Structure formats: structure tokens, C-alpha cells
Structures
1.
Amino acid sequence: MSVSKKNSDDKKNKQTIIVRVICIVLALLMLGGVIAATVLSTQAVGEDVTETDVTETDVTETTEPEQTVPEETENNSVFSASDYLIRVGISFRDGTLDSHRVRTHKGAPGFRLYKTTKSNGLEYIWTLYNNDVSVSETGNLRRSSGDEWYYYASASNTAAGGYHLQLLNEYTSRKEAEQAISDLKDAAEALEVPVFPAYLNGKYYIRVGAFGSADQAESEKEVIENALASECSVTSPTITSITVLDHNTAEVLFDFDMEDFEYGLGLYCLDNNGEKDYIKTYKGYYYDGVFEFRRYKNSSVDGVTMILISELETYVTCVVPWEIYNTWPVETMKAFSICARTFAIANSHENAKHKDYDCDVCDSSDCQVCKGFDRVNQNVINGVKATEGQILLCDGETITTYYTDLGGGSMAAAHEVWNMDKRKYLVGQMTPWEDLSVSRFGDWQFTATPTELLQKVRNAGYTNLKGAVDDIKINRLCENSTYVYSITITDTYGTSVTINRCRNVRNALSGLMYAANFVIEHNGRIEDGINHELQEVISGVYVMTSDGIKMIDGEQRINVVTDNGLKQEYLPERLTVKTSSSLVSQTVLIKTGEIIGSGTGSPSSDFKFIGHGNGHGVGASQWGCKDLGNLGYTYDQILYTYYPNTAVADYWEYLSSKE
């Protein structure tokens, strides 16, 4: 070995030793820092920080960081496990549409997307940062002339094509798909084609482009594959697929297809800078909850349904101000909160009213009007909150809390209105506390000629009548009510038809009454269903009493309840009814009956229907509940008045008893 080589080796060994020493020293210094930090942090736990703990030198001026969207996690739950959820049909059955425009109400940046099930299962799958979208059936789409929705279009006249190129790679997680889209974004933008996620049968895929046909997609395939350095296949629309578009540009943002009608796509509004925001529908109503979109197809409709999944108390809040005025007495608000809540419980889940269409109830008066938060005020919130969880039971079971706009002085038993079993909480009763003067339905009159009447009755299905109507007889009224249960209509040939139950009577005479609470004036006589010896109409004031129609003169005194004397004890007991021009005719409520009008003394062959009220007349009168609230009745007294034999109970206790 040469000297120079030996000296070189010694030098290298010394350098190695020095490096090792330095590394050991650095390691010891780092270990000491960790130990010191641990000790300090341990001492800080539980200590109170006072103003003197922070000096001016501790506070430095910083720049506000740029606002970012909070990191989404895989557990983006909307509801708690204890929430009772209601599925509200907004657009379904024959009301199914090709697409639905939805926006954020206050400008939130977008929506969380969920895979939903008919049992309200929610699985978070994506976050969409676009706050004005259309959810549509997948296909070639173009925008309507009013710019509110998209509908099917031909390949040559489309704003958004339904055919795409799909990368062959599949991704099991949202984050993997997000990264893949990010990696492809620049190349896709260079080609001026959209790149977007598709959630298919539980997995994520990347799709590119929106073409009007499979041939168009195929013609662009090679160019796009080369640009993206990825193999692709051509996709076509299916009968279960749903597309989310940017409503204003028609750019495809997301595709969803589980190849099964059991699943839907859910949208939930993101917060707006920490503030709660809501989803606004194409009709302008805004709601809190998850909107579920699901493909639906029958012999006449092929489109997308829209169902709101809402927590029960939120649903009740959105029903009350659409069924009654939000300025009404708070006790009335409370009473109707319980009515709405009870109806929802009784007609949901296994007892869903619209079970065949994947929802519990609808948003119309067929169930309960539910149009969102637009009319919600503090009065409504107070009424709902004060009765949270309360429902009405009869013999330990939920009741169906039917209610109507205005009874008109009485209510009818449910089994006499519809073909249903007798229910002891839906009974006929007189309601003299109703102030008929405040509603346009308090007193009404409709007139029809014999020929017009024939046409109406025939249109209702009673085609055995051939000639003009000659006579209508009221056979009987409902029990303890002035609602008409049965009529017989006879034409000029002597052919007759008898119609039973209030609903059928009202349908047969559609357009001639607001409720089946009426009498008939014809040929100078009044038919009332009580006194079948028809009375000739002469000048005067007529009153319906328990003994039939009676005329009274200016000196006669009768028992009444007046506008300014609505009391529980029905004071004053007697009042003189005047026949002068200042007569308070069809607005005075009479304890033994009701004023039905002044006779003209001029007989007519036309049929005049004179009546009170609006609606089916079963359960509670909405305006009557308001009157009782004004009289000082508490919410439970209001409910027990209209729904006898019931009791207010907690719905969670009720549900627990059924488990």
C-alpha cells in the first residue's frame, strides 16, 4: 500500500468519526426539544389564562387568510339517529318532470350529494360547488323557452348531450376520483370538453364530453384518449340514470346511476359562510332537508321525481303557515301544530298515504300544504316549539286530524262525508262560535238553470238523467249537522237519481257550492231537508231551526250568538232581529239555527243554492279554531272541542309503545 493511499484512508476515517459525532449531538438536541415541549404542554392543561398572561408583544398583526371551504369528511350526516323523518312528495306521479331546477336560497356555494334509499338511508358521495343546478333524466337535453327546466331534445338540437366517454379506470373512494379529475383537468380544458365524476353502482368513474349520439362520441374518442393518455368507452343514457347540470351553462357536473329504481340522488345545501342555507325549488319555495331525485317511469310519464326528506318538526313548521294565517292567535298555532304533526305521524312510514310513490305525504291540500319557510315567522315558530313532540291519540292510537277551511256553523261526521268506518273523534256538531262574516265563504249563493243543472249532474256521471232538472229534494241532513247527506234529483221525464254522502252530493253539484252545507230555493219555495212541506217564499227573514225553515218578523225574539257576543255561554240569550235595510242577515249566528236569507217573493224555475262554509266539513274548522283562540281557549281546549274523545300525548312515548 502506498503512503499517499494510507494517508487518504486515515483522513476519511477521521471525517466519518466527526460526522457521526455531529449526528449524535443533533439527535440529542432534538430529543431535548421534544421533552421540553411535552413538559410545557402538560403544565398548560387546565390552566386559566388571564389578561396579564398576554402582553402586547405577544400579539402580532396578521393577514386574514383566504376563505376556504371546510374539508368534507366521509361522515357528512344531515339528520340524527333519533330524528323522525317524513318523505314529502313535491313532484311525483303524473307530476313527474324531465328536470328540476334547484338553487341555494342565500348563496351558499353548492350542495352535498348523497345516495339515498326509500327508507331514508343517506350515504355521502360528493360535494358539488355550484349553487344553481338542474337535476335531470340523462339524455339529450335542451332548455325550455322560459329557461326554468330542461327536456329531451334531438341530437342536432341539444344543449347537453347524453352520451359520454368514460375512462376505464374505476375508483372506490371519492378522494381518488377527485384527484383523478384534478390530474385531467388541464388536458380536458385544452380540448374544451367537460370532465366530471359519475357514481355508478357504488363506484366512481370519470366521464368526458357531452355528445348528442354514440357516433359523435366515437368520432372524438381517439383524440380524447391521446390527450388524456387513457383508454375510454362510450356510454349511453339508461332508464335509471340522473344527470346534474349547471343550469345556466348546461355543462354536465355529475352523473348518477345505480341501475335500480330503489336508489335516488340526494342534494343537501351547504352552509353559507357558517350561516344556515336552504334549497330553493323551481317554484321559488325554499326548504330545509334533503331533496331526493329518483327516476320514475310509467305508461304516460318518464322523468325524475322530487321528494323532500324532512325532520318532523321542520316539516310541521313548513305546514302550519300554509294551512292557517301566521298572524292568528298563538293558541291556534299550537293547536294546528299538533294537528299537522299528528297527521304526519298517522300517514307516514308503514302507513304512508302515498306509499306506492315512495313518499309518505304530498305537499298539497290532498294531505297538508307544505311550501317551505317563506311564511314562517316567530309566531309560527313559537307555536310549533311550544308543542314539540305532541300528538293527538284516541284509545291509544294516532288519529287522522282532518280539518277544513270553514265549517259554516256546523261540522259533519266523517263516515257521512266519505265511505269510511265511523270514528268517534270525527263527529257532527254545531259550531255557533264561528264568525262567518270574516270569510268570503261564510255566506254564498249559486244559481243554475234546470238545463245547466242537468249538464253538471251528467258530467258527474249520473247519465241516466235525460231531461232538464225538474226538482231536487233534500232527503236528510247529517246527524247533528246542517250538512246535506242525501238528495234526490228528478228530471222532466220523471227519472230520478238519489245521491248519498256529502262528498258525492258536493261532487254532483260541483261549481254550485263551496260545501255540502246548503238549502235550495226553487219555484218560490225553500227545501231544507227538515220541513218537507215546502214553504212558499214571501218577503221576510228566514231562519233554519230544529223545526225547519221559519220566517220571523221584526218583533220576534230568538236565541243568537252575535259578532260582539261570542262567548262560551252564548250570550246574550235573546236578540231582536230586524227586517229593515240594516238587517245583519247572513252574518248573524243563531243558537237554534241560522239566518239563510231574505225572500224575494218572486218564484223562479232556476235553482238557487244558499249555504255556508268551505271544504269537506270534517274534523276541525280552521277559521273556527281562530275564533276559539280569540275567545281565550287554550290549544288543548280547541283540539278537544273539534276532536272529542282524544288526548294530547308525546309521540316518542307513543312510538316506544309500538316497538
Note: The chain is about 25% helix and 30% strand.
2.
Amino acid sequence: MTPSRPSSGRRRAIAAFAASATALVGSAALLGPGVGNASSHREAPITAGDPSVDNTDVYAFTSPDKPDTVTLIANFIPFQLPAGGPNFYPFSNDVRYNIKVNTNGDAKAQLTYRFTFTGGPTNKDTFLYNTGAVDSIDSPNLNVKQNYKVELLDATGNVKATLVANGKVAPSNVGAASMPNYAMLRDQSLASGKGTDGTQTFAGQADDPFFLDLRVFDLLYGTNLKEVGNPTLTGLNVNSIAVQIPKTVLAAAAAPDTSKVIGVYSTAERQAAIAIGADGTRKASGDWVQVSRLGNPLVNEVVSSVGLKDAFNSLPPEKDKDTPALVARVTEPEVPKLIEKIYKIPAPATPRDDLKAIFLTGVKGLNQPTTPTPAEMLRLNTGTPPASNPNRLGLLAGDQQGFPNGRRLTDDVVDIEIQALEGAFKDAVNGGKVNIVPALAAGDGVNTNDVAFGQSFPYLALPHSGSTPGNGSLGGGTTASSSSGSSGSSSSGSTSSMPKGGVATGAGGTANVSHSQPLIPISVALLGVLFAGLGVVTLRRNRA
């Protein structure tokens, strides 16, 4: 039987209602957290629509309290509002999350630490993430539990060992009533993540450690460097995977290279096909495909063009040198040209061999392997001892243990990379001096994280609590001062000043532990409601 076709008047009404719904959904989307980009937060079209695989940042550094080990961290699922229930932020059970390590300079992963996840809600007859106070990671009140497995893969991609068979994921920090002692939950998660070869692992929610003012995307800080000093990611969380690896494990996989330099990057993989059933269930099948990749901060963000971003995410690093368009984006970068256009600061001459060293080969005498294959990855010289007095500006301030020699949680990579793109390292990569660009020395005015980092693995601050009012500064807004606390604390309601500084401030000031209330784009939301009303009125008139 052929269904009757709506009248032309009703078709117009349905179209109007559909348009209004689209406008309403669009306005609602503007109220949510996904409204900007950061280090590699929502940096490519595909990952922007698939936050479970969106790799935001990678860190690699010699562990300061255990210098015979190296700590590697990869963060996923950006812009997490702590009170983002009822589902909050689990890892995807359908994704392989990888931290990959190149140990001999050939741009291929000799070691891969693969994290996979299982679990979910225990009681499917409630909408709650937890049904009461959670006093243990095994509490029956924690309705949504995830476990993780860590496998160590060799250079051929075969599983060499299962390091952790049944690790326990640190849950989303729902709030003080639900999780009155969140630090204990993390400790219990860490206790479950001890690897068989001495490697320590972690998987769970954490404070987003990346700090910056995201208004860089408003024509480079508003065309006049006035849009700086607002720590956009204050109060937001991410999901983290981390490994602390004995240096002996890295050395054993490095032959014949003796430079002690490793290349680090992370990836996420999905199966090639997903079938969606009539009941909404999904089933993945087919080959595993790399859909996200990250090494150095901000590369796919501001070095790659829009047309290259998804391709970059699927490309293995050993293919970088054979991708002329990608190499050209490094040696003929766009950002200095934009800065010249907006701020009249002359762009350095090209081709940029200094950027090739920083992003593709490593800097000779600092973090370059014996025989490097050009490839974009975060390179760390594991033989460089931890700095006794770390400087947030890393190599830019003469601190050889900081970015671009790996990346510590405290490294201010935005200020460093702005200077690098403007040529500050052009002489330094050849044994000369660093030449700061004075006009940009103030950087973005955000020099430190909003909360203090930990003193032991995984070093990440505890995630912000969902019960803390005003989490998240996306969209601007005011910030309320609060007492120090790694998982967040109650707001005093007063307006606090933002951290200031720049290249000349060295270690930088201490950011206030503060949380911002986002400004809601009311006019856009009301426009959506207005269209929705018009659609309903039109539909009713055509029914009459």
C-alpha cells in the first residue's frame, strides 16, 4: 500500500518545522562544550564528530621522581564539563587506544602500548551513573564500571605480552556527594595497573592539563593581542591513558641506535564498518583503521590545512616524508604569513629547516636519533636528566629537558611554538642562540595550569568535580575564586584575575584555581525557539 502524500501546505509546514528543529539543535549545540579547538581538541572534521577517538595531547618526559623511567601520557575526549551526566565520559569499548614508541629513528613503532576497554552499566534499569555514594572503585553503587587491558606489541604488530589484564578505570568525578574521596578511587585504579615488566599504567578521567587562551582562533587574539589571558580550559576534564616505562625496556628495543632518543605518538583505531540495528544497537566489524593520530602539540591543529587533517590522522609517521603537501606545510608554514598580514611582523624566510628539525627529525645534539627518518612525532632524549628548576618555556629559556625535547605537563607549548613559528630557533638548531621575537614575547598570557599537578605517576591533577559550580570557561565569562584542591572545591563567588605573563616571565605566575561560568548565546537560542514556534503555527494553520 502506498502511503498518502502530504498536501503541499502540510509539506511546507513540515519543512518549516524541520528547519526550526535544525535551528534549535544548532542553538543548543552552541550551549555545549564543543565550541573551540585546543592543542588537538576537535582539530579535524572526523575527530570533531567522534570525540571518543579525539586525541587531545601527548606528553613524554623522564619521570622526575623515578628518573630511571619515562612517562608517556595520551589524552582523549576533550571539553568534558564535569557535571556532564547522566552518561558522563566512558572510554569507547569499540576503540583501540595506542601509545606508540619509535626507539631507533626509523619512524616506525618498535613498541606499542595498546589499551582496550570493556564494561558499562551494571544495572540497566536506572539512568544513574552511580546509585549512591561510591566509597570504593568496586562499590556496588558505582553503576558504570570499566576495565582495561594493556598489551605490548612489537615492531611487527604482534602481541609481545599482556602487561595488565584487568585494570580498573578511574571513573568520571560525578560530584562530592557521589564520590566524597575521589583521590582514593584514583589510588585504587593505579593499584590495579601494575604491569608485568615493571611498567605502571593508568586509565581514567583527569583535569585537562593543557593551558592556553583559545581566542587565538579569533584572527590571532583579536588582531591586536588584546584577547589574551583567559585560561579557556579551566575546570574542564579529559580521559587519560598513561604508561611509566623502565628505560631498560626502551633501550632493549633501540638497537642499533644508541642515541637514547625515542619518538612518541598516540593513535586511536576503529573497525572499518559499523552496522546500526533497528533497535539502535551498533556492531563494528572489519579491519582496524587508524582514525586519530597525535605527536607534537598543535601540528594537525595549525600546521596542517583543513584538506589534510583527516588524512594526517590516518597516516603512519613513516609515510610523512612521502607526503609532499604535509612536508610543505612544515617548511612553508601558514601561521607566520598570517602573523605578517595581521601584525606586520615579517615572516621568516623559507624553506624552514628549523621547523623541519623541531617537528620532523629532532634537533641535532638535543633529541635527534643517529639516523632519523623525517616523521612528525614527539621526540625525547631519555638521557637528558630532569631539570632541577624546570622552566615552562623549555628550550626557549635554555631548559633542555623541556619542549621540544619531549613535553612535560608544565611546558607552555603555545608560547614556545608561537616563537618557534616566528623563527626563534632558526639559529639555535644549528648551534646558535635563541632569538626571541619581542613583539610576541607576551604570548597568550596563560602560563600555568588551573590546578597543581601531582608529584608521582600519573602526575595529572585529579578531575574537576561535577558538584563544583561554574566549571568551564568556554565562551568566556567570569571566574570564581576557590580554595586549592585537585578535584575542585566550592566557589566563593568572587571574580578572580586571570594568570598573566609571557616569554619574559620565565616560570610564570601561578594560575588561580578558578572556574568560569560560560556565557550562553541567548539570541541564537531564542532564534531557534522562534523558528520552532513559527513551524508549529504553520502546521496548525494548515491543519485547520
Note: The two ends are 27 Å apart (CA to CA).
